[in-house]
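Re: the 487-residue chain
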Amino acid sequence: MLVLGGGPGGYSAAFRAADLGLNVVIVERYATLGGVCLNVGCIPSKALLHVAAVMDEVSHMADLGVDFGKPVVNIDKLRGHKEKVIGKLAGGLAAMAKMRKVTTVRGLGQFVGAHHLEVSETTGTAQEQNGSKKVIAFKRAIIAAGSQAVRLPFMPNDPRVVDSTGALELKEVPKRMLILGGGIIGLEMGTVYSTLGARLDVVEMMDGLMQGADRDLVKIWQKMNAKRFDNIMLKTKTVSARALPEGIEVTFAPAEEGGTAPAPQVYDLVLQAVGRTPNGKKLAAEKAGVAVTDRGFINVDIQMRTNVPHIFAIGDIVGQPMLAHKAVHEAHVAAEVIAGELQGNKELAAAAFNARVIPSVAYTDPEVAWVGLTEDQAKAQGIKVKKGLFPWTASGRAIANGRDEGVTKLLFDDSPEAHGHGKILGGGMVGTHAGDMIGEIALAIEMGADAVDIGKTIHPHPTLGESIGMAAEVAHGSCTDLLPSKK
């Protein structure tokens, strides 16, 4: 079996297939496994966000009687810490590949037939080709070639214009920084740079930041983070930019007719975070007969199979949401189906990706996390829900932590067919460690739990996690930690 791409999806597929007894080759263009997520994405950004969160928390300690003084930032040392984190995880993956006897071939892979992939060898830290090529034959293949950051065509080719990868290099801290796009990636990187001293502007074409999350959750995040921003430009698009000696001058326009836009502004650093585009069109997939959409996605069935029966695809390249945790689960499905078919194991061959929900997390401060149906979606789709909302102002642990701005919200089916015992349909949280707790809500949805199931599950006290049990009690009408609801 051949796996094209060594990110969280690719290496998970390779390792699962190897564990099931297959002979596996991974083709990866970069020097280490782990893909965007480990090397230039989720992991390094979390290393920096952790440092930023500690810096922000320490700054409030003086009010509690413990004054640490103003932090002194050594940017080189901080960058070194981030690299060390990446190195530790990358080393672990290399060791796991070796122990599983998974062969890693370094290079850019392109299909030359339905059962052959040509690999142009790459060297150095990135993807410089050295001219050497080899062809690998395979019985089965999994395409896990991921996505890349969208680059706006009118942005100048200048070191002061970066994508998320460039922002994570942390070359210096700008005085003024513009974030193009009000999504999770841009806001996470903005959090880091802001804590290190940058002033932020953000421009977003839609009518709010962090699209996808409920507005009531985002509102709490925005109130807590207002001090970071000089300007939040909503319903505004970026139309041009030019490099000047003093900075990058950016010109804006209203995204809607009749709207207004600010005058051109000059920034020390511009972060392009307007989304990611799949790498489907770079693989010569048509030579293997694999259909790729105009946008570069590869369509698959519930078993992750493409239109070519022996070639599968997983991760960002098969569609939204572009999340590592989705890719890993898809990877296991594809590997199991392939092993099952090759080995005549009907149970494995019947594997399918049938997760009900996939959680999303913004690792900002506070964190925003949600899974399943959102309240905004319920309203738009006319789905009747019963809401259990528990404010962290009633959480002993949140108050003790000095961080009681958060809320936990659960949504239950309130249709007539539910007869007052509706199953949980979705949930969301804003607050510290929200991302660490959203998995319980995802599990509740997968298991078809109702408010009684969750509320009667004894959660340890005092914890932030017990807010999930309390929110279920609110929906059920049995919560004694809040004022009684008006009948």
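The two ends are 62 Å apart (CA to CA).
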